[in-house]
Prior knowledge:
By secondary structure, the chain is an all-alpha fold.
Amino acid sequence: MVSQSLAEALIKGRRKAGLTQRQAAEKLEVSQAYMSKLESGESKPGKKMVEKLARLYGMDVRDLYVLRIRVNEKTGMNTEIKRWVRAYEELDITMIEKMIRSRFNQINPS
């Protein structure tokens, strides 16, 4: 079962956009059954679908990515991404800067 917070965000976004499941499905060129699975938490959208949903619903794609990543935490997301998400959620600027410097130094050693 996928995180209900993502499913709930998708339902709220669709309703705020004034769309039915069928209308959203048609605009996204997917089946209504797939939309129903996304909104019930039975299925998880891929990255491209998250971007399409955010665009269609007028939502910030970063917010949906964070919710999608939280879903992945339950299925074994790697540790580095977990640290990034935690720092983002806590708006821990010091930790984010430290992680960026660390990643930069790994890519471009002095």
